[in-house]
Design brief:
A four-stranded antiparallel beta sheet has the order 2-3-1-4. It has helices at residues 2-25, 29-99, 106-109, 118-143, 147-155, 179-208, 236-249, 281-292, and strands at residues 220-229, 263-267, 270-275, 299-309. Among the domains are: 2-70; 220-309, Alpha-Beta Plaits, CATH 3.30.70.3400. Helix content is 61%, strand content 10%.
Length: 312
């Protein structure tokens, strides 16, 4: 279920981001704002789902940890109870044995038996032998020489590294292996990423910036607009009012303000206008986007066509 939610959320985010770029390219600001708000909402929703999943996993881990602690405490209490019972049994057993007449170490109590002298003699013998061993060890450590160690060091001297040159700094020496190769790979990756980012920024700037373009060979530009009413009765008066209202709002959308330009009614919700001087390609795109994105109440404008017109 979570994967399905991520799938739909990712598709919605990609779609809203794509439409955001498209509407920005078309200079349709209202639709671009709606797409941006939708992208923000989808992003916040995905972030909330991820955070909720993390919090759920954290709560589950805390519950599992509490459960383990409770089990450990229960086992500890059970162990303590068993230990206390064993101690009580041992005490009872010792008390019972102390009350009963015992015959332990009878050989010590019997004066006729003289075998108990063997134990002290054995202990004294052990002390004497330990003293002798300590004395021998001290004499050996004072008289012995590390001949075997020196001989082994002489045999291993051929395996030692040569001494560095007097003017060589070991800290400046490059490590053996692929250090330069890894650095080159990182540099190439950073360069490719920077080139892609730069091309993306330059491409978007080239598509959306306002620049001074050369004049076309035509003398004027003709614009054909259709007006559709929504939610109200579509009358010629309402259509004309909506068309002129949107046209007045879009007079300043091009690099050259649309002065001395009016719309003429053609019937069936169609209106035509002639713009002098002729608009450039970029100004045509901006004018189309402004007219189709105009927020006129209960009206929707569609640019049927924009073409070149010659004065006659």
């Amino acid at each position: 279920m979570r994967k399905l939610v991520y799938l739909f959320g990712g598709a919605a985010a990609v779609g809203s981001g794509a439409y955001l770029v498209v509407y920005l390219y078309r200079w349709q600001w209202q639709r671009a704002i709606l797409s941006g708000v939708l992208l923000l909402i989808v992003g916040m929703m995905l972030l909330g789902i991820v955070l909720l999943g993390r919090l759920a996993r954290i709560e589950e881990r805390i519950r599992e940890s509490d459960r383990r602690q409770e089990d450990a405490l229960a086992r500890l209490r059970q162990t303590q109870t068993q230990t206390q019972r064993q101690r009580q049994r041992q005490r009872q057993r010792q008390t019972t044995q102390a009350q009963e007449p015992g015959d332990r170490f009878r050989w010590l109590e019997d004066p006729a038996n003289r075998t108990y002298v063997f134990v002290p003699v054995l202990m004294v013998t052990g002390v004497v032998l330990a003293g002798i061993a300590w004395l021998v060890q001290r004499i050996a450590s004072a008289t012995a020489r590390p001949t075997a160690e020196r001989r082994l060091a002489g045999q291993l001297s051929v395996l030692t590294a040569p001494d560095p040159a007097p003017d060589t700094d070991l800290e400046d020496a490059r490590p053996l292996g692929g250090g330069s190769r890894g650095r080159a790979t990182r540099l190439i990756t950073v360069g490719v990423g920077a080139a892609l980012l730069t091309s993306l920024v330059v491409g978007l700037a080239d598509l959306t910036q306002t620049r001074k373009e050369g004049a076309t060979g035509s003398q004027a530009t003709s614009v054909l607009v259709r007006v559709d009413m929504r939610g109200v009765t579509s009358t010629a008066e309402r259509q004309s009012m909506a068309a002129h209202q949107a046209w007045e709002r879009c007079r300043n959308s091009t690099s050259v303000p649309l002065r001395r330009t009016t719309l003429g009614e053609l019937g069936d919700g169609l209106f035509a206008g002639v713009v002098r001087p002729a608009l450039t390609d970029h100004d045509r795109l901006r004018l189309r986007g402004c007219l189709e994105d105009a927020d006129v109440d209960r009206a929707h404008l569609t640019v049927v066509g924009i073409g070149e017109a010659d004065e006659s």
